[in-house]
Write a structure and sequence with these properties.
The chain is α/β, with parallel strands linked by helices. It is about 30% helix and about 25% strand. The chain has a domain of about 90 residues: GMP Synthetase, Chain A, domain 3 (2-Layer Sandwich), CATH 3.30.300. The two termini are about 35 Å apart.
Amino acid sequence: MSTFFDDLEGRSALQRKTDQNRRLSEMIAVAYRHSSRVKETMDGLDLKPRDIASVDDLEKLPVISREELVELERRDPPFGGLCAADVNVARIFTSPGPVYEPHLGEGQLWARGYFAAGFRRGDRVLNTFSYHMVAAGLTFHEGLRAVEATVIPSGTSGTEMQVQLIRDLGVTGYTGTPSFLNAIIAKAEEMGHAFREDFRLRRASFVAEPLQPSLRKRFEEIYGIDTYQMYGATEVGDIAYECSAKEGWHICEDVIVEIVDPATGRSVEPGQLGEVVVTRLNDTFLLFRFGTGDLSRIIQDGCPCGRTARRLGGIAGRVGEAVKVRGMFIAPSQVARVREAFPRVTFQVVVTRENYRDFLIVVVVDDEGYGAVGDTRFGELFHSICAVRIDRIEKVQGGLHEEGKPLIDKREWK
């Protein structure tokens, strides 16, 4: 088996850019003909398809944030005019907002990342992402199958069940969030197992949540688990992944990544920090310049693994006020919807880290307004709107922290 998933990962920079320019031109032509939203945008800017002939021309188009995509789809459901009217897709996924996402490919999504992480035929991999409505479970499943690994679709089953599967099925690999693997290991030890000695799990690929260096060290040195990170967004699929060198994340071959000044949408100088803006080359979901809201930079140096794609230098933080909690975004607009449902309740969402896990606290002014609602009703509606459960409700007398802010992220990545 070769070093690369295929020869595309070893191309020269010129070959890669030439191919991306060709595919981008084809995508623009399709979008102008079949996407009402793209045509409206380009006509409003006095642009024709020939004006977007290269990656460098993308700056002529606006960056679309997740909040703007939610609004586009609200006004023109289900896909905001970004698909052909008669589009035929295998699946439609959802994510909080809501955002409706047509499935962007069969098999190849995430496959390069899993291959780079060393997953192969003979591996038995626990896929702990949800298979219900959201894209994660099925798309990661297909990526693992593309590298011929056997997938165990454990989904969001409880930690005791996950331990049983690891033991009974001889699981060798894991994909999910690092905090959940940490919880599984803790449960195994609580059940009397010595995780490293009793089990065969030796490889993990993490998505949807940052891997703290201290937790990576714990996994690798104490439990003998070789860890890798992948990076993506439900709206555009896989974006980048780590190889065995673990010196940045290789940008996937089917995406164009720009690092831009969030205020202007224009590219920053190489090596500088900016917002990750992604265009996925495809002919289904014609979304150009999706602003992830994540901050990163480009690593220009070559990689020891031999892959030639540019690399992202990890995620340094968030541009806007939306916060990702346990793999799901919570936006101020969602918090506002909870407030609309409980207009007499004064509260604030605070995100912290406890035991390597995202921890969501709702700070509530303990007055008659909240007393009339109670923890249960409030918690159930919060989960239904934000798709994340509250870990703790803290009641305070008087005012809130940082008055006026609905959503506060107090996590520190060390």
